[in-house]
Amino acid sequence: MSIPLSFLRNSPKSSPSTSLGDALAQRISESSRVATLLDCLPSTSEPAIHSPDPSRPPLTHKEIKNFIQHFSLPHSPSHQPLGPNDRIMVVLPTGPENALALLALAAYHTCAPVNASCTAAELLDDARRLNARAVVTTRDAEARLGLRALREALGCDVVYVDARSSGPCGMFDMAVLGTAAMQVQGTPSTLHGLSDRSLILHTSGTSGKKKVVPYTLLSLIVGTSCVVESWDLRSTDVNLNMMPLFHVGGIVRNLLAPIFSGGSAIMCAGFDSMAFWTLSQQLQATWYYAAPTIHHAILTSKPESLVPSRDLRIRMIANAAGGLLPSLAVDLQTTFQATILPSYGMTECMPIATPPITYNLDSPGCSGIACGPHLSIRDPSNIEQALPAGSTGAICVRGLPAFQGYETSPDPSVPLDTSAFSSEGWFDSGDMGHVDEDGYLFITGRSKEIINKGGEVVSPFEVEEAVVTAARRFVKTTLAFAIEHDVLQECIGVVLVSVPGKPRLGLGQLQDLLRAHLHPSKWPFAIVYMNDLPKNSAGKPLRIKLAQRLGLGSLSDSLPAFQRHFEADVPDAQSALSEPIRCSRVTFDISSVDHALLSVHGVEDVAVRTRPDGAPEAFLSASDMDPRDLRTAVASLLPGYAIPDPLYILPGGVPRKKSGEADFAQMEAEIAEMNASAMTESALLVRDIIVQLLAVDRGKVNGESDFFLLGGNSLLLGKLAHQIRKETGVSIPVATLFNHSTVKSIADLVDASETKHPKEGTYLAGGRHSRNQSDVTLLANGRASVSPSFHSRAGSEATLFSPGFHAGATSKSARSQHHPLSLFVQAIPFIFFYPLKAALTWSILVLVLAELAPLINETFWERILSLLASIIIARLSSRIISPISAILFKWLVIGRYKPGTYRVWSTYYLRYWIVNQALRISGRGLFSMHPSLEILYYRLLGARIGKGVKIDKQARLGEYDLLTFEDGCVVDNALIRGFCVERQGFFTLGRISIGRYAIINTYTQIAPGSFIPDGAVYGPHASSHDPSSPESFAAFNRPMIPEPNFWLKHFVAWPIIFLVSFVSYIPWFIVIWLMTHETDIFQGSENDLESVIDWFANPERVSYHALSRIVRALVTPLLQLLLGILVKRIFGLNRATSVYSQPTQLALLRRYINSHTLSRRILRSSFAILGTHYEIVSVIFRAMGAKIGRRVYWPGSGIFCLDPELLEIGDDVVFGSRSEVFTTDRIGSAKIVVGNGAMIADRVVLLPGVKIGKLTVMGSGALTVRDTEYKDGSTWLGNDCLDDGSNKDLDRDTITPFGKAFYQREAPYFVFPYALILAINVFTAALSATYWSVSAISAAQVLRRIDLHNNQEITTIYRPSWYRPGIIYGLIALCFVVVLNLQGIVAILWVIVTKWLVIGRRRDGQYLWNVSNYCQRWQLHLVLSRVAFKGYGNGGVLGPLTGSAYFVWYLRAMGARIGKNCALYPGGRAGLMTEPDLVHLGDNVSLDDCSVVAHINSRGNFALNSLEIGNGCAMRSGSRLLSGASMEDGSMLCEHTLLTSGDVADAGTVYAGWPAKAIEGPWNEKETRETPLLVDMSFANRV
After folding, report:
1. How far apart are CA 420 and CA 428, in angstroms?
2. Which of 1135, 1239, 1513, 1578 has the fewest CB atoms inside 10 Å of its own CB, making it the most exposed?
3. Which part of the chain is the Carrier domain (predicted)?
4. What b/e string do you get for 1185-1209 counting C-beta neighbours within 10 Å, with b at 16 or more?
């Protein structure tokens, strides 16, 4: 028979007395057809296993049967061949080879598949537990899994599976590790019979210790046949498998069921939502079985052009691994027009339930009817008793295919553990549910008991096993349970029942014992001592609500360890779960402690007292005894919490007062003196710093005291580094302090640094080293130096010190920011510049439309074409006139910039500032349309630009006539401007020269006074203060990435780009059509201009005008996005290329088109509507070809990638803002992979081929290395590795607080659903578009009112004349000035008022998404604030106020504390100050385009810490102050400088680098004397 098991089809359905499993088992036993697995395999020539690689032919049923029939597992000469029931560990990645290996091994041996990603320790533990005789795996796993060590430890063979490179997929050869040349390939072993154990699996362990579940061949055949029967699987069915083959569901449903039914299965390496659609279409899949998350990902990644019901053959979809939400089931059915089947099964029984194949979602939320074993709902407290129909209780199963018991020994002769079964054979599944009148099962909850510690799921049974194993001499039994925690939600508590006669273990002792058995993240946080475990009447331990019954409340990390020890009564077994259990904190008797210590041999005298936290402290005299030995001796006498810590041994005896009482004050002095005498001078200094930071007792800190154990944390570590630097002059990186945290090791670092780099200077009293690092100059090559000569303002060097930094510089005669002249001049751009520009566009529109009147015959098409022509002419005219006017304004007001240093608020500053605002507001206009026009624009402003220069459109240039670009240089998205702020309220203008063929990469800042040498390469992520980068970094410059040839670009790409843009504006054209349809613009009774104005002012036209603005703001970006994705899909996706291979013209064409149709601007506009942080962004990136996991937190600024199809992002990844993703450079294209739970912070640059590991943190400004893998769990800042991740628990759940709150709705507040977020975004965008259209509408109404007065003198302005355009422009401009100013002020007030209403005043602290609604309120305010940034052109309403007192007033209204004469963003571009009410600025502070961010978001753990910037400080463009950092008076951060969390910039010190490093070098006396010359010269320009 070609399909041997076809005789089992249409077996009698289950009845109250006979289940489907029983019926199938009976037919098999009655028949003589099935005795082995080989008897179940079809022998047809039809496909059985497909590869996802379409180039590989499928493996047929006949080939599988033939392979298995002749299969023999090789072995080394020293081992005997393996036979039936010998255990074989299978450690293979999912795929055709894995499938065939499972079938072959299960036919002859006991197959034990495990996750191929397991660790070496896990594999060894499982193999030892199962007594594995061989391990089957791949060669590339040898080192990772420690296979040679495993072979030696267990004496087993390791067999490699070598996939064949040609022929049918799945076929493989085998080789034995270390003996490939001598391996023995014997004859096939004896086939397994029905009672032999063909498969063995472990349970997950979440409900207890991992248990071993054996499967006989009969149970596998029956379970598989149940699946085939209940799902009506046929030989024509094709299964698409993306599930792993080490779980029973994947093995039975996705492998055995397709094979036994004569069908086939597509064996994929893992889940890929985009590959699903391709494979299901190419290989004609008819069904698949997957988890709910996979269903959801499949739906969200469906290609727009594909109609599943038309293009696919999928007839059935089955659900696994969790409940199927009814809404998701409906979505699946609507999309696929297929049968949607929930299902239910578990490791101990597969399957249990599924609906019939005719099911049509008639019972939403069900798991189906029994489809294998008997099913019963029973009393959870006593499964011997069945519950009445409809009752909710424990779901229990009995009979095949349910397992027969847990394995206790690998020896098949040892009986199975059946203690989990009732006397009638019922097994409790651990789930709760009920069965309705139609027999449908509904699962209502889980009884599994887990601890959720900060998002990490901890099995209490794992903790219990570790405690009992590690502390077996002291602990009789234990019970782990969850206790509420103020930050982590839950922490781990344990009930300890001590061994009789043994003292109680203390928390510290227990944690020491657990070091080798349990990861620190799973250590108990509190102990409750009981005489026995709390149990129910059946004797089962009770952990449910135990913490609440004990009244433990919410614990916190600040609670001392002693106060985390409790003792409680044992509750009665019959007591209710709501009944409290008497519990209290432990106490101890000081006299008992005293007596115990005195009983130790060698102890002469003792004085014991209680510390403030309640713990004991002891001083004693003893001869020749070490405190550690004494502690060990007393551990057998006292409970752990009563052992004094610390124990102080006094060499001279215990001093006592005349009364006989111990003199503790004298003893403290002696201990302090002893500790001090044992420490070096540096150690004493470090000790004093730590004591001051942590507020601990100085006398009790010795050389071995650890900063973290004393109460330090990572934020205080930055302050520690600062204080050490301040007191000693030695800079120790924070990363180094992480690994050297004791007083002695820190002191050794200080001493080593001072020996290596002796410092000049004098030591003041108290040992403090006096240094003044303020007087340093930065050479043109970016290196710090001290020069004995005075540098003139026109020189080639930029000063890093503020002229007149000392008292003389802060002359009281200097103009302040509140001077009337300053306030007047700096109000001009806000009042006039943008309103005049906007008025120009509208005036030209009205006048051109009036001029076209004589040419129009009033047909509809003439009306609409004349209107469109007028709009185009007006916009083009404005884009030509505005930038040219700004260029002329620049030359008239300031002429050529004069290099030098000037005081802010001086006349020269006001001239510079207003010119900068004019250039910013006018924009580049028409000059931005082509690179050659941009070069012309820069040259018109005075820049000297040579031949062949390439400057990226995103590059930010300024002070153009101070810039020189030599031939062939290339500039990416960098900052190159001749302006920078200085300390004490000064700014510098300096020349910059970029040498011939120099390369400036992205995120690179070039400071004034810099001369970049010929051919030098800077960046990515650098500044001119850094050394030049390697020449190979030129490959990362995007303007140098090749483009398609001329013909493809101009005759293919640009027509497509134009077509996409045109089609996206069709909705706007429709509104314009509605505006002009059946209306007459020109009235015969009025002249042309009057008609145009009356037509515009008509209420109907006003409505359509507002509607057109809304459509352009909402619909056009989304259409551009959808059309861009469609075009990308039509042209196909790019692939990774080999290094230095030449890309094809087609690949270049794709990339060029995508860079325009899916540009950064289009993506940002779309995400602003759809939502920036949410799943919809993942959906869009998937549509663009990227592989994106679940619950990704996307940045508000978005990310841009030339080839998103080469981007692979795992689950729960968190992105910071403004990161750069390079999948393509000049070398080639390569995939970028970001692992589950990784954190990509702000300004990170990811280069091609980079693989970011699981839970890896790429900190602020991290620059990756091409084709490099970053280790799982490691932490990086800049280019420095702070933590290699070796001590992290990498197996914990990766879900972030954001994921819990937003996607799992696990938060104590109302979490906005996505629909509400979308509605808010749409409303805000529509409101903004309407709001900012008011100025044009108002101008039309005013002009119409003038006309309605019908006054002869007034209406003459409409008559044609040579001066009419000027009058019309004047009137419209006046309206725009008045209305836009009012709108601008209202918009600013809107931002301020909504901030206080929505957020209120911020406070320092942690604000996790799933604990506090702060993040949600902050996001809401950011969206509402968009109104203020959609008007006034580039920079919004705040743009014209940067660098003025008005901006300071705005920030003060937002809650910032700002001193006098602070220049905030005088360069014209507002930096980031996201939490102004947590920022304190002193007097004369200057901030350019920098980031002052008080929040820190580490993998979604959101926290706020205040920031303080002292008097006279400066932060230049690109610098960043992280949460909790601060700057002392007169300090400065240069371009591209990061001051890390908790760090402090020393007074008067200049810093550069990422992270910041002080620029070394003492003041030069001559420079100090001559500095006022610069001040005097700047004062000459003051008035």
Report:
1. 7
2. 1135
3. 677-754
4. bbbbbbbbbbbbbbbbbbbbbbbbb
The one-letter amino acid at 117: S
Q: How far apart are CA 423 and CA 384, in angstroms?
A: 7
Tokens of 775: 């007087």
Least reliable range by pLDDT among 111-125, 319-333, 585-599, 1522-1536: 319-333
Cα–Cα distances in angstroms (integers) from residue 665 to residues 386, 597, 647, 662, 1550, in the given order: 71, 21, 16, 9, 45
DSSP state letter for 700: G
- Kindly calculate the radius of gyration of the chain based on its CA atoms and give it in whole angstroms: 38
Average the pLDDT over 797-812 and give the result: 40
- As a three-state string, the secondary structure of 988-1002 is EECCEEECCCCEECC
Specify the CATH architecture of the domain 589-655. 2-Layer Sandwich (3.30)
Q: In what order do the strands lie in the sheet with 212-216?
A: 172-176, 157-163, 134-137, 87-91, 110-113, 197-202, 212-216
> Whose CA is closest to 258, among 287, 284, 281, 293?
287
Q: What is the mean pLDDT of residues 1002-1011?
A: 91
- Write out the DSSP string of 947-997: TT-EE-TT-EEESGGGEEE-TT-EE-S-EEESEEEETTTEEEE--EEEPTT
On whether the CB atoms of residues 1134 and 1206 are closer than 8 A, the answer is yes
Give the percent of the chain with pLDDT over 90.
39
Q: Which CATH architecture has domain 666-771?
A: Orthogonal Bundle (1.10)
pLDDT digits (tens, 9 = 90+) for 229-250: 999 999 999 999 988 898 898 9
CATH architecture of 1-7+21-223: 3-Layer(aba) Sandwich (3.40)
Tokens of 224: 């598989």
User: 796 pairs with which residues across the strands?
Assistant: none
Residue spans in the chain of domains classed CATH 1.10.1200.10: 666-771
Q: What is the DSSP string of 206-249?
A: TTSS--EEEEEHHHHHHHHHHHHHHHT--TT-EEEE-S-SSSHH
Domain 449-586 has CATH 3.40.1000.10: no
Instruction: Write the pLDDT tens digit of every residue in 1082-1139.
Output: 555 556 677 777 777 777 778 888 888 899 999 999 999 999 999 999 988 888 776 6
**CA 1240 to CA 1214: how far, in whole Å?**
6
Q: How buried is residue 16: exposed, middle or buried, by Cβ count under 10 Å (0-12/13-18/19+)?
A: exposed
Residue 183 has pLDDT above 80, yes or no: no
Average pLDDT, the chain: 83
Q: In this structure, are strands 1501-1504 and 1495-1498 parallel, antiparallel, or unpaired?
A: antiparallel
